[in-house]
UniProtKB/TrEMBL annotation:
NCBIfam families: lipid_A_LpxO (NF033391). This is Lipid A hydroxylase LpxO. Keywords: Dioxygenase, Membrane, Oxidoreductase, Transmembrane, Transmembrane helix. The keyword Transmembrane applies. It comes from the Bacteria. The gene is lpxO.
Amino acid sequence: MKWVIVFAFLASAVYVHYRGKVRHRLGRQLLDHSTFMAPVNVLMYAFSRVPTTAFIAEPGQHFPELEPLRAHWPDIRDEARRLRELQHIKAADGYNDVGFNSFFRRGWKRFYLKWYDEAHPSAAELCPRTTALLRAIPSVKAAMFTELPPGGELRPHRDPFAGSLRLHLGLDTPNDDACFIDVDGTRYSWRDGQWTMFDETYIHWARNDSADNRIILFCDVERPMRYRWAQALNRLIARHLIAAGASPNMEGDKTGGINHLFKYFYVLRLKAKALRERSQSLYYALKYLLVALVVAFIIWI
């Protein structure tokens, strides 16, 4: 039984690596968080009720409950613009946003509306119209306003969990092909009032090479599954693991357990970065040794 589990894990990891047209270098993928979630994600793909392509054509056909967001996009835009004027769409104030911490270095900013729970108190107060719309759509598990200023970028990455699909609704965008997201080698340029949906476990990246700012509504929408047990597994992982990544906008908002620990983990991360600067060969040798020890431990038990 132990070898069956090991084989299933390795087969899932290989599938995730070769899925799609674009992939990380093998060395990076080996240490990527999506590798450790590979067995669960393969189940999500296998029993998904919606296509498992990089982009989901016509999101409204698969998720008709999302249509009020597109219908009321000017109201949502007005609240996002007001937040930006108040400088509330911003990077995290400390090391309390493990999921997006690396994005802040290159200009990306956010304001959380909800994260696998009810609306943040700050969002309910400052964005009553948007949070009311989201409250009426239970399939939207997480939502935020995100900003990508001129010159901003997100480096190629894939998200760790396939239990959701990513919806982007253009609010205040450059309406320019120089501001785009690339998902598995296909580009999409945001436009005001228009939306796109994609599978965030494909490698994706974004740039704003225009002269104007970009603000969108960013939502994680629960992936519908073919069977009740698969939907229950999806929700179990979301409720007990993904929800622990909640990050506050300001004092009074919820901080998840993972983000409470992140500030301590980041101290180790800074030491690892310092080691990489001194000796890349030693840094990678230690990382691969750690992976080998984990695999050896799994086989031993």
